[in-house]
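Suppose you are handed a protein chain with no further information: no name, no annotation, nothing but its sequence. What can you learn? This example shows the usual starting point.
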Amino acid sequence: MATTKQLFTLNSFLPQMLDFYQQLAKALKNSAVVLATVTSIKGSTPREVGAKMFISADGKTFGTIGGGAGEAKVYQQALQVLQTGKKQFVEIDLSGAPQRETQGVCGGTMQVLLELWSGSESLNLVNQIINTLTSGRLGTIITPFNTDEKPYLLVETEVIASLQTIALIEPLVAPPTLLIIGAGHIAVPLAQVAKIAGFQVIVQDERSDFATKERFPEASRVLAKPITSIQEILDKNPNLYISLVTRGYLQDLAVLRLLCKYQVKYIGMVGSNKRVSTVYKILQNEGYDPEFLHQIYAPIGLDIGALTPEEIAVSICAELIKVRRGGTGTSLSEKN
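A reasonable first move is to predict its three-dimensional structure. Written in structure tokens, the prediction is:
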């Protein structure tokens, strides 16, 4: 560990931050846990700074810091921390050097902080984090490296620069929201896959027999209402992705006429080339800005040869991740 005072600032965090802390809150109600956090990396590593997992007193885990022998080492050290309560760092060498016990071959090194979280104080902190994430407010978790100091939450981010301690600084980023317009066959697996990928899911369809919580248990909201019901979501959510998987082009037109007034992260529209061109032609004739139409991903999804609703859902979610993370969509084997 470095001996000079420094701050590790994260520009990104877990894709499933909210889910992680919700699971942590559940675990803390039953027992103490050890939180393992990647605090620094060098070279090629399986996870980024801020990646987390926790180990509960019954030996169960949630999250991952990369798997393999390195994670196994962290797990064993965490069992000791459960007994001693003392914060400690674990160095993981993934260089593949034969004398190293972790025997990873990613090529880099990772430093992982282990700390005991227990009791009402820790649970209160986790609940504050969850409330910050769900409310959309700004907040930052400060995790001091000093063994005598405990993590805490800042709601005034401007004071971070004046901190005079070694700490991990983790901005709280609300999860991206995927608004699925249409509750048909594609929407069901899309909600499932998007939830796994870290999106908060909202489903809208005016058909009450399709837009039900039973069909979409992963969704945080299911709106069996007209398309105008999404205006509140458009007004309040700055991190919004929208997938149009409607039953026809008339529904697409109604949605796009509404969306043209808003800035969102992504708009994708399902359909054949003929359906897409028909929608574009009608909107162009109505005088809608061509630049708005150019922003739409249509037909939706990456070209992976998808045919079934489940495969199409994977294709759509792959494109969502590509847009969110700035990827290329190229096979990794073709980049070498």
